[in-house]
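Hey, I was hoping to borrow your eyes for a little while. I've dropped the whole record in just underneath, so have a look:

——
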Amino acid sequence: MGTKKFFSNMAFRLFLAVVAGLVAGQFADERVVGIILPLKHVLGQVIFFLVPLIVFGFVTPSVTRMKKNASGILGISLLLAYVSSVITAVFAIFAGYGSISLFDLKTSPAVKELPEMIFRLDIPPLMSVMSALTLALTVGLAVVWTNAEKIEKLLYQFQDIVSAMVTRILIPILPFFVFFNFSILSYEGTVNSQLPFFAVFILITILCNVLWVAFSYVVAGLYSRKNPWRVLKHYGPVVLTAMGTQSSAASLGVAIEAAKKSDVLDDDVRGFAIPFFANIHFCGSVLNIVFLVIVISQMLYGSIPSIDTLALFTLLLAIFAIGAPGLPGGTVVASLGLIQALLGFDEMATALLLSVFALQDSFGTANNITSDGALTLILSSFKTGRRRVT
């Protein structure tokens, strides 16, 4: 069973797709590439067709759920998750800019021209990503304002439908999409010279995740005036589970048990916050996405997105992270359209992002679920302080 789980792991399948694509591209001739190009294009069209549906399907129900516990604790929880993701993204921007300056990364000119596609099938999305996000926010708020319970239930069912699309359509075709893209990159000669840098940047993202966990617990300790180690010391099994499953949702049971062992977390807050944050707080994933888009943009396009573009991307990505599906790679999947719309990533860059993200997603997931303990400590102290004032 263990071997079966290993081979069915998304990170392993994407890694295998990368390696197989790089090898295949070295031996492919113009005729083979002519067949690969339309297949890659069709899969890319399907993926980007699904993105606005994913955005609407997960963000809208997240907005409607706000009314169910419309208390200060819920509001503070949402604010903590959002601010944590934004600050993490800012940290990733500094890390990305600093790392890029240490390496001489230049775009590699293609050594081979690609043949024309023998056929082309375009599948335009129903709406743009920004339209989907705007529609999700406005519909979600309107449902709350009008107390439209039937529509709310329909939105939850639609979320289940979209989740099925992700698990049964998007996730299965991703390895093939990555394989085709890396075959083309290898055939052109675009990415081969940059491969050593990817290993270095993966190590940097891992270090950044570790530093962020440490920082979040230091801040929680300073705010609560309690030793954060009394929470963090119980999270060893949670980290191992998160790294093995690449899913905060799958690690939730272990996280709940770990939090129960801490004597500095409020019982009521802990029972609400740990499951809640596991579904809306993905700071590690945000960190990895922001860092990698900077690196990949420099590698493939020869420039880094401007600060104002990254600032807008960060603010929106934090919203997308709150509404992201609790699946392996859910945050990056939910943000694909945003990355394409704001940063101008094409199919090649998107495939590269998905692949490299998957290779270090275990550490991002461990960051996600472990940092929840720090936010819960802050929330526990907030509740205690508010009770004293009252």
